[in-house]
Amino acid sequence: MKQPLRGRNTAFSTIALVSWTVAMALSCLWNISQEKATLKAIALHQAIQSLEKDIIYRRWGALHGGVYVPATPATPPNPYLNHLPERDIVTPSGRQLTLLNPAYMTRQVFELGRESAGMRGHITSLNPIRKENLPDPWERTALQLFSGGTARETSSIEELDGKPYMRYMRALVTEAGCMKCHAAQGYTVGDIRGGISVSIPLAPLYAESGRHQQTIVAGHLAVWLLGGGLMLLARTRLQKSWQNEVAARQALESSQKQLFQQEKMASIGQLAAGVAHEINNPMGFITSNLGTLSKYAGRLNEYIATAEQVLKSGEDRHSAVETLAAARTRLKIDRVISDITQLVDESLDGASRVRRIVQDLKSFSRVDQAESALVNLNEALETTINIAWNEIKYVAAFNRQFGEIPAVTCHPQQLNQVFLNLLVNAGHALEGINGSITVRTWGDADNVFVAVSDSGKGIPPENLTRIFEPFFTTKEVGKGTGLGLSISYEIVKKHGGEIKVESTVGVGTTFTVRLPVCGPPPEGNSDE
Length: 528
Hints:
By secondary structure, the chain is of the alpha+beta class.
C-alpha cells in the first residue's frame, strides 16, 4: 500500500535528514580517529627521533672509546670500569678527569631529558652489568622478542606512574667499540646485547589533540546544522507549494528528476551519491510499509480489545459473534491480514537489496585483504560494475563477455580502483550518445586480460600518447582531476602487467589490461 503524497515526502525528508546526520556523525568519528592516529604517529616519530639522536652520540662515544670529563659528585668514576688502567687521569694543570663510556653518557643525557621535557630513557639488557639496567616487564617482553630474532624494534602506548606514554625500544647490536666494556660478558660483534627504550609523555599531545577534536566536532556540528536547515527549508517550501494531489505528484516527480540530474552531474562525491540513491529507494518503501504496518497493528489491537470486552461482558454467544463480526468488518481485519504478508515480503526484498549493495561496497573495498590474495577477476569485475552501476545504467547498454580465466594473485582493492576508473571513464565518454559498454575477459596459462570498450566519442590521436600523464584530462573543468588513468597505469605496472589503449574518433575506445597470473613481482630491498 502507498502512503499519500504528503506522507511520502515527509518520510523522504526524514530519511534524508537521518542520512545526513549519520553521514556527519561518521565523518566526525572518522576525523577524530584520524586525529588520534596522527597523535600516535607524532609521538612515535618523536620517540624515534630522540632515540636516533641518542644512538648517534652513543656510537660516537663508542668509536672514540668514551670521553674524559671532570670527576664530580654528579659524575663520579664509573665502578664498572675499574679494570681499565686509564679510567681516571690527571691533567698537567691538576684537574681530575674520569672516563665516561657510552652507556654512562647515555644515562646522564636521559636524566637531563627527564628533568627538562619529561621524556624517559633506559638502557637495559637481560644480562646487564648494572642492576639498574634490569628491564621492566614491558622492556623484558621486547628484549625476548629481539632475542628471538623476529624484530629489532617495537612500540606501544603504555602507562607509567599512572600517565600515558608512547614507549619505543630498539635492539642494541654489539659493535667493535662496544667490546672494550662488554667483551668480558661473552658478546661478539653483531650480537644483540640489549636495547634502548624511550618513553614520550602523551599528556601534552592529548591536550592539543583534545582541542583539535573539539574543533572537528564544532565544524561538523555547524555543517550539520547548515545542511539540516537547508533540508527543512526545502521541505517547508515544498509543502507550501502543494495545491492538490495531482499537482503535488507532478511537482514531486519534477523535483526528483531535477535532484537526480544534479546528483549525477556533481563533480565531487558523484559515486557516493549514486550508491546513496540506490540505497534510498528500498529504504523509502521499507519506511512506508513500516508506517502502514503500524496502522494495521493499531487496528488489530482495537479488534483484540473488542474481543476481550465481549468476553468480559458475558453476552450470549449469538450477540458476541455479531459484535465481533461488526468490529471485524469495521476495522477491515481480513484486508489487514492479507495485506500484512505483502508488506513484509516487500520490506524483506528491499532490505535484501540494501544488504546486497553494502556487501558489494565491502567486497569492493576489501579492507580485510590489503595484502595480495588469490582473486577471480570476473567476481571482482562484477562487484565493481555494481558499484559503478549508477554511473553507467543511464548512458549505455552494458554487455558482459566473461571468459573462463584462472585466479590471479593480486592486490584486489587496487585492481578494483583500476576497473572503476575505466568503467566511469567509459560512461563519461557516452554521455549524450546512447551507446554501449562491453567488458570482456579471457586468459591463457600465464596472463589474464580484461578489456573495457565503449562506443563513444573516441580519443584524438594527439591525446593518445598523453592520457596516462598525471593531471592530463580532456574533460570539462570540475569533471575530472586527470589522475585516474595515471594511477591505474601505476597500479597495473606494479602488478607486473600493462595497460594499452586503442581508440578511433567517432567509433569508440578500448582499454586492455594484462595481468600475470603469478601476481606482482617481489619488491626489491634497498639500503637507502
